[in-house]
Amino acid sequence: MGNPIASGLMCLGPSFFVSAAFILSIFANSRCNFYLLGPDNPVRDQTGRVTEANLIGLWCYQDVRGVNWDLRGYTFDERYETARALGTSVNAIGFVLWLYYLFAGCKPFPPVAFKVVGFLGVINCMLQGLVFLLNQSMVCAGGCEMSTGANCAISAAVLWFVGGLLSCASGNDAPGREDDEGEGGGD
């Protein structure tokens, strides 16, 4: 029989990494500071007028005066829209993983559940990395430099990977506890 508290104690490591990755992913995918745009950026509003954008994220941009503007009404190329969809997917999957570890600290789960969650963590790592398709979109045609959001996305991808790997190992029983009856007990 499995150790009933292995799930609660052994999930502290992956839950820390998943929580940190989730917070960084939200910051990276939701803020207006993913890329610092070059002076020849092609961000245009609906009338075709070029905006004075300084920083751009997946859902908003910041102008040179520091004011944030919504980008939901803007139409961009397929790579930008794909990066938006991937960023939203990362946040949604990350919320599910974070919620799982919220409950895993209190209730034992079978080892297969931890392996599934670990696989989802590695998938989330890849999806977070694919958000960088934004670099190949028309928005970065005039030149882009990574800003705070992009750095957070890189950190989040690493933490998703580490959390996913640790999750695959955390659902196993504690070493030496699998067969307590068979070692010196029942002559």
From TrEMBL:
Keywords: Membrane, Transmembrane, Transmembrane helix. The chain crosses the membrane at residues 6-27, 85-104, 116-134, 146-166. The keyword Transmembrane applies. This is Uncharacterized protein. It comes from Pseudictyota dubia. The lineage of its organism: Eukaryota, Sar, Stramenopiles, Ochrophyta, Bacillariophyta.
